[in-house]
Amino acid sequence: MYxxxxxxxxxxxxxxxxxxxxxxxxxxxxxxIEILYCGVCHSDIHQARNEWGIAVxxxxxxxxxxxxxxxxxxxxxAHKVGDLVGVGCxxxxxxxxxxxxxxxxxxxxxGPTMTYATPDRVDGSNTMGGYSDSIVVSExxxxxxxxxxxxxxxxxxxxxGVTMYSPxxxxxIKAGDKVGVLGMGGLGHMGIKLAKAIxxxxxxxxRSASKAEEGRRxxxxxxxxxxxxxxxxxxxxxxxxLLDTIPVQHDLNPYLDVLRFDxxxxxxxLIEPVDPPVNAAxxxxxxxVLAGSLIGGIAETQEVLDxxxxxxxSCDIEMLDIRNxxxxxxxxxxGDVKYRFVIDMATLKA
Length: 350
Known about the structure:
This protein is α/β, with parallel strands linked by helices and 350 residues long. It has 2 domains: 2-159 and 297-307 and 316-349, Quinone Oxidoreductase, Chain A, domain 1 (Alpha-Beta Complex), CATH 3.90.180.10; 161-292, Rossmann fold (3-Layer(aba) Sandwich), CATH 3.40.50.720. The protein has helices at 42-48, 98-101, 151-154, 160-170, 186-198, 212-218, 229-234, 253-257, 280-284, 298-311, 325-333; strands spanning 2-8, 17-23, 30-40, 65-72, 84-87, 90-92, 113-114, 134-138, 143-144, 178-182, 201-206, 222-225, 239-244, 259-267, 289-292, 317-321, 340-344. Helix 4 crosses helix 5 and helix 4 crosses helix 10 (298-311). The longest helix has 14 residues, at 298-311. The protein is globular, with a radius of gyration of 20 Å. The two termini are 24 Å apart.
């Protein structure tokens, strides 16, 4: 064991504040990492404030971690001291169920061990995330950061990037497909970039006409203002796929109308009941699919990092002093960030 430092919430109603805590010494298959950067995901806010009802305190968020290997366990072969590596949303799984064998650890039938606020599978301690100076993780859940990627802007790829890449891969989105991206936050702007790099024809759906220019700057071929009934009607039956990043309840029915037959509407941002209800006739009469997708597996995470390096894709970020994390949460709730905060962990020691 050794003493680490970070920022944590002690309850759902208290701000994040500095905290010292114990990290385990590396086990045989572990990699010890000095954290250089950590992205700030909206789910960090949900968890810190217990908005999903599953938080365990003290809670130290952070699952978009980039750092440098400082030590490895005796059996580690994939990484060595000095390597630049990343850790995403998971740090363990059962490793023997069908999902784990398919390299889709996020769907582990026994439940994955998340990077924070989950019992460790070995000692039962509460996992602590990346708002800290260091972390110790099994080598299986550590990925390599390609040399071509900027370290800070690579951090959100470990969550936002793979969240968009996984359904693109699973559903076989390809060059020439007509893809709509709903919403343009941290997830949406990465979805535009990834789908465009594959060669898809990409349309941003946004409620605000003021975002049209920004959507095109991110790579969208077209922009549809979803509150404009005429624009939505003109798009009826047009799209092969919709990547829906909207994190709050919204009416799915108008979007199902813009799908062609056999089209797929994929939810990646909404984790609550759909309201208003979906009209099943809209699915049945066009053999349309309403689907969901959760982050991505470890192999997919490495794939999307490599893909981004190959295609020159990075997340648009704003660097953050960790001492301003609570103000950053307030700004995120107000939508005042383009498009992901990334904490410079050097500020933890300032």
